Amino acid sequence: MGEPFRVGSARCSTDEQDVGIQTEQLLALAVPRERIFIDKGFSGTTRKNRAGLDNALAAVTSAAAAVTGRQVVLTTTKFDRFARNMAEAGEILTGLREREVLFGLGNSVYDWNDPFGKLFLQTLAMVAEANLNHLRTREGMAKARAKGRLKGKQPKLPLAARKTIHRRYHDPDDDASLADLADEYSVGRSTIHRIVSGTTPRA
Hints:
Elements: E1 5-11, H1 19-28, E2 36-39, H2 51-66, E3 72-76, H3 86-98, E4 102-105, E5 108-110, H4 115-146, H5 159-170, H6 178-185, H7 189-197
Parallel strand pairs: 1-2, 1-3, 3-4
Antiparallel strand pairs: 4-5
Helix pairs in contact: 5-7, 6-7
GO molecular function: DNA binding; DNA strand exchange activity
Domain Resolvase/invertase-type recombinase catalytic: 5-150
Protein name: Site-specific recombinase
């Protein structure tokens, strides 16, 4: 059997990740440059608008029908560069198996007929889901920060309430204690303590 017919899939999100690194890694894995398909600036939870991945899948589908005597392999550098959730991963990998296209992850190529390979791919999908949840949170925070929507931890009580608490606690004619104020405003004593220990709250 001849050398595998390799097609590469790469992706970078809006988190300023350099797709050039993935490209160099795919070239080192013997994927020809003309068969490397890239999605740039893609972020989200589904494969919508991922023309690069769609083109890579079309390429391996055509090769599986036309190439004889060679294995056809869809290659990616990391699982989370390939799929965005378990449902998507399962759909794509099932399609590859039906077309007898193997899946290459880094230096490894997984054979659908090998029980260990099948189990390992299922495990990869589960691990990728956990990594992607973290990535989505980080990307969402970056977007919110860029739009000025993420300004750090917000106080538990509005400014007017904090001013009232500060005034009442320091008013000799008001015998409200830390516990009384905490119960009244449904917050912890530590929150009241921070308010009354500082200067008068300001906007």
